[in-house]
Design goal:
Largest sheet: 7 strands, antiparallel
Strand content: 25-35%
Structural class: alpha+beta
Number of strands: 11
Distance between the termini: 31 Å
Shape: globular
CATH topology: Jelly Rolls
Number of helices: 3
Order of helices and strands: HEHEEHEEEEEEEE
CATH architecture: Sandwich
Number of domains: 1
Strand order of the largest sheet: 1-9-6-11-4-3-2
Oligomer: single chain
Radius of gyration: 16 Å
CATH superfamily: q2cbj1_9rhob like domain
């Protein structure tokens, strides 16, 4: 299954620069990740910029970095690392590592329009977002991901339904998260081509 999914993702990146896949990886994995996130008390307010400043007028989500646990987190990270190897083999992307965190949006939280990487920044090259929210109400839940092209034209609205995956080229698609009307869980991750830092910037860990 993973190889077929990797192929679909790769084809989407080549053709359009992004792809949205519903029922993507595993509903069981999505549920297990959601339960893991809900149990944690270690979420911390996310920052913006290399100095990790907190700008609540621009971004209000909380994050918790993923780590190997020989269980649920490792299963997701194994999927991502398999995709890393596939992209390197098929597209010669020279990705060196993958990093990711849980993201929690409480009611009223949002994230203003932004790029995940600036052109020629030589760090993040591919972004993935994996949603964990079961029985999400599209009319009342809010929290949609809005994706734009490089000319700021709207191209896609993504509802944060469980087991939905979006993958896109980090420097080509500005995007924003609209205000959430209920708790909203996801995983955001980046495939990077720079050198991994020895010490995590935000040492969050699940209990």
């Amino acid at each position: 299954m993973s190889q077929a999914l990797y192929s679909i993702i790769t084809e989407g990146l080549v053709q359009d620069g992004y792809i949205v896949i519903e029922d993507a990886i595993s509903s069981t994995l999505s549920t297990n990740l959601l339960n893991l996130a809900k149990k944690s008390n270690n979420f911390r307010r996310a920052g913006i910029s290399t100095r990790k400043k907190i700008h609540s007028d621009k971004r209000r989500d909380k994050i918790l970095w993923l780590d190997e646990d020989n269980s649920t987190q490792s299963e997701f990270l194994n999927f991502a690392n398999g995709l890393k190897e596939y992209l390197n083999r098929e597209l010669f992307m020279c990705i060196s590592y993958f990093e990711s965190h849980f993201a929690l949006y409480e009611k009223g939280d949002f994230y203003e329009k932004h790029f995940d990487a600036f052109k020629n920044s030589v760090n993040r090259v591919v972004t993935i977002v994996y949603y964990l929210n079961e029985e999400w109400d599209e009319k009342e839940g809010g929290g949609e991901l809005m994706v734009y092209d490089e000319d700021d034209n709207f191209i896609k609205k993504v509802f944060p339904h469980a087991n939905t995956l979006i993958v896109f080229l980090s420097e080509k698609f500005p995007h924003e998260v609209l205000c959430a009307n209920r708790k909203r869980y996801s995983i955001a991750g980046w495939f990077r081509v720079d050198k991994r830092e020895e010490t995590p910037l935000i040492p969050s860990r699940l209990p």
